[in-house]
Amino acid sequence: MTLTPSNRRRSPREPHWQRNERLTSRELAPDIRRWLLDDGSLTGRLIDQQRGVFAVDRLFQGWEVPLPSERRLLDLGQRQLAIVREVVLNQGSHNVVFARSVMPLSSLTGDLGHLRRLQTRPLGAILFSHPNMRRSPFELARIAGDSDYLPREYQQSQAVWARRSRFDMNGRSVMVSEVFLEDFRPWPTVLPVHRTQRGKVSAAIVRPKQ
């Protein structure tokens, strides 16, 4: 389903994003931290699980002013527009991840220009295939199941974990947040990642102001 501007929800309340090292083991259990901080390709992980045909359901894609913390993360001005894309990743009949991406106009140039016309192709597959991709450290959030950060039809019965990071490619940045829905099942161990699939996590990327 693609939402039209007339029924598009506006300005969802932002999750409380935190650097992962600020969360204690009591707040974030080690068995959850293990998969939540896995910096391999999430698309690849979900395909490897073979729980059904992997598919992307695009809910919305259009020009919007990003949320305040997203603007800070991407170094955008208050009124700068970006393409906001919201999708749900599916494994067969299982809705497993809600993802929200923010792509500033200034990033949609050169070999990333085609992202303007992105349909149901997984964005992660494109970012992880870029030879110069760098990924910022994750920020994490515990999101209430009825949070309006989630589209109403994907709100959950209990709180769920989310993460986000910034991808940098030759000076162009894209933010991706991922909310793990109740039907998500983590992989049992940290799996090997092909070198061509793994981006480099850069501690040098400036963190957003809190």
TrEMBL record:
Reaction(s) catalysed (UniProt annotation): chorismate = 4-hydroxybenzoate + pyruvate
Keyword Transmembrane helix in record: no
Location of this chain's protein in the cell: Cytoplasm
EC number: 4.1.3.40
Pathway: Cofactor biosynthesis; ubiquinone biosynthesis
Binding-site list for substrate: R85, L123, E178
Keyword Signal attributed: no
An annotated Gene Ontology molecular function: chorismate lyase activity
Class of this enzyme: lyase
Entry's Gene Ontology cellular component terms: cytosol
GO biological process: pyruvate biosynthetic process; ubiquinone biosynthetic process
Keywords: Cytoplasm, Lyase, Pyruvate, Ubiquinone biosynthesis
Similarity comment: Belongs to the UbiC family.
Function: Removes the pyruvyl group from chorismate, with concomitant aromatization of the ring, to provide 4-hydroxybenzoate (4HB) for the ubiquinone pathway.
Name of the protein in question: Probable chorismate pyruvate-lyase
